[in-house]
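Can you give me the bound-state structure? Components:
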Amino acid sequence: MSTLTKVLIVLLTIASIFLCGVVVTYVASADNYKQMYDQRRSSEMTAKQQRDRTIEEWNAAQKAMAEEKTKLNADMAALQAQISTLKGQVADALRERDDARRRKENYESLLAANAKTGELHAQLQKEAQDAQVKLEAEKTRLEDELDGVTGALNEKLAIVMQLEAKVKGLTEEKTAIQNKLDQFLRQYGKVTAQAAPVTVMREAARVAPPATDIDLKGSLSAVDLKNLLAEISIGAADGVKKGMRFHATRDSKFICDVVVLDVEPDKALGWLELLQDQPQDKPKAGDAVSTNL
Amino acid sequence: MSPAMQSRGKKVTAPDNLYTVILSLALAAVLATAGYVAYQCLTQYETLFKIQ
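Here's the bound-state model for the whole set.
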């Protein structure tokens, strides 16, 4: 063999051994990719199974959640309805509360008014009691005064009865004397005037005797409407007498009647009767009066 | 064939065995390496030439 061959053989051997060492080192230190792949694959399978399981659980949870959501929606709707009902009840309660407050304020104002009225009543009652006490004192005083006056009246009545009895006795005595006098005068052809009765009749109002065929005429000289009195222009000299009734006229219109109360020689005073309602028909000075219409 | 070997004829000398041993060592190393690689391939990938 040539030297070159020997060198090449040695180099080849060295290179081979080196390369083999490198290859062995590489192969020994290389990763077992199949094992890694198998591990990864098993991990992947496990993960896939777990994912599938998780997906199934998630679907189941979704379904349960949907059902729960539906149930909760139904519950929410029911609760909303209940809330609406409760809100209505709250509004009603608030209205009732406001009505109760208004009634309470009204009652309080009524109570205050009643209290004031009670105070006023108490005050009025006290004043009435004071007035009653005063009136009772006045009543006592008046009763005492009445007793005194009644006693005096009874005394006066007794005196009047005594005087009436005395007058009656005197009148009868007068009648007896008058009879004796008549008997005495009859002897000489004379008579006395007619005797008055024992009991005198007092007339409260005397009716004027009818004045016919006299035809007295005059006029009203003065009129007192307040006291219903009038003065006529003719008197006793013209034939006017007490009790005569004159008719007052104005322009042929009846005004009133005048009943003579008092007579003087040239004038007479009379009482107005049958006055008209109209003011223009009231009697006044200057109206004509006559006994015959 | 080198002319030296032809000139010697069939006589085998010690330097020829040395290089043979060296070559055999190299061959053995290569074969061992190939065997080791094949073994590793089989154990790891369960295949030798194909990709599964």
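A couple of observations. Chain B is about 75% helix and 0% strand. Residues 1-8 of chain B have pLDDT under 50 and may be disordered.
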